[in-house]
Amino acid sequence: MDRKKIVVIGGGTGIYPLLKGLKKYKDIDVTAVITMADAGGSTGRLRDEFGQLPVGDVRMALAALSAEVDNHDELLRELFLYRFDKGEGLNGHNLGNLLLVALTDMLGSETEAIKVASRILRVRGTVLPVTEDRIHIVATYDDGVEVEGEHDIDEPPEDRFKSRIDALRTVPQAHITKDAHTALDQADMIVLGPGDLYTSLLANCVVNGVPAAIQSSSAQFVFVTNLMTSQGQTFNMTAKDHADEVLKYVGRAPDTILVNTGKVSDALLERYASAQQYPVVDDADEIACKVVRADLLDDTEFVQKQGDVLQRSLVRGDSVKMAEALYGLLE
After folding, report:
1. What distance in Å separates the CA atoms of residue 36 and residue 173, rounded to the nearest whole number?
2. DSSP notation for 150-162
3. pLDDT tens per residue across span 46-80
C-alpha cells in the first residue's frame, strides 16, 4: 500500500483534535512537528526548574496519537493527561509532563524521551520537536513594544487586547532538527494549524530551516484557519489576513485554505466578546488558492480541568470533521 505522509505543524490544544482524527486512517503516516516555544503553566515551571525543552505541547501530541484499542489504552492516555489540582508543588502539573521530564533526565535527551513515551503510549505516528535549541519567542508590536515569552504573548493585559504583531523571532536563533527537516521534505501534505497564529503556528516558522524546507517541498501546503481571533495577536484579522502572515513568515503561500462554516453558539460568542475575540471573518475568496469550506466545529462544550491556570479555548475543532476534510484533499 502506498501510504501518504502528512506532517502537521503546530502546538498547544489546536492540533490535538486534528491528530486524534488523522490517526484513524490506516493508509496515512502522521508526523507532528511541535513548537518548542511553550513557556506557560506546568510546562513553564518545569522548563525553568530543569532547563529542558518544553514538554506540554509534545505531551498533547503524544496523547492525541496514542492507541485507542481498549480500555487500558484509554486509561493510559487519561493518566498521561492527568493534571494535579492539589498538593504543594504538584498543583497544576500534568503527570505526562513529569514523565517526559523524568525520561529526559534518565536518557539525557528530549528526543529519546519522546521516542520512549511514544512506545509506552503505542503512538500511531511520530512526534518531533521542531528544534532542540532552548528558545523563547519575541513579538514586536505595531506600537514598537517588544514582549518575550510565549505565555506573556498568549495572555496579554487587557490594555493590549487590540494590539497587532508586526514581527516575530526567536531568542536565541533556532535551527530545525534533522528529523523535522526530513519529515517536511518527504511529506505528501504539510498542514499548518489550527492553533494560535503566532504562538503555536508561526513560532515554528521562525525557526531557521523551516521556511526553506516548506518552500522546497513538493507537498501540498494546507493552512487551517482559526475558528476565533485571539486578543493581542489576531484582533480583527480575517482569513486572508491570517494567510498573508503565513506567506510573510513561510515564504510560500498555502495551496489550500481550510475554512470553518460551523456556527458558534450565542452564549460562547458573548463570553469571547468580553475578551475582544470574535469568529474569524471568511474572506478566503480573496486569496489566490484553493478554498475548502466545511463545518469543523466541535459541538461539545469544553470544560477546563481543575488545577489548570492557563486561558484555554472554549471553541474547538472536531477531530472527525477536520480529519475528513484533510483526508479528502489527498491525491
Report:
1. 12
2. HHHHHS--GGGTT
3. 887 888 888 999 999 999 999 998 888 999 999 99
Q: What burial class does residue 172 get, using C-beta atoms within 10 Å of its C-beta: 0-12 exposed, 13-18 middle, 19+ buried?
A: exposed
Q: What is the pLDDT of residues 254-279, one digit of tens each?
A: 999 999 999 999 988 988 888 889 99
| Number of neighbours of residue 310 by Cβ within 10 angstroms | 17
Q: Cell numbers at residue 85, please?
A: 489540582
What is the tens place of the pLDDT at every residue in 132-182? 999 999 999 999 999 999 999 999 999 999 999 999 999 999 999 999 999
Give all strands of the β-sheet with 165-171 in edge-to-edge order.
146-148, 136-141, 165-171
Cβ-contact 57, 8 below 8 angstroms: no
45 vs 230, more confident:
230
Give the C-alpha distances (Å, rounded to integers) separating 299 from 252, 295, 315. Answer: 33, 10, 9
4-327: CATH topology: Rossmann fold (3.40.50)
- pLDDT number for residue 309: 44
Map grid coordinates 478566503 to a residue: 284
- Set of cell numbers at residue 40: 506557560
- Order across the sheet with 28-34: list the strands: 126-129, 28-34, 4-10, 189-192, 220-224, 256-260, 290-294
Q: Which residue has the cell 494560535?
A: 196
Distance CA 205, CA 98 (A): 28
Grid look-up 511541535 returns 34
* Length, in residues, of the chain: 331
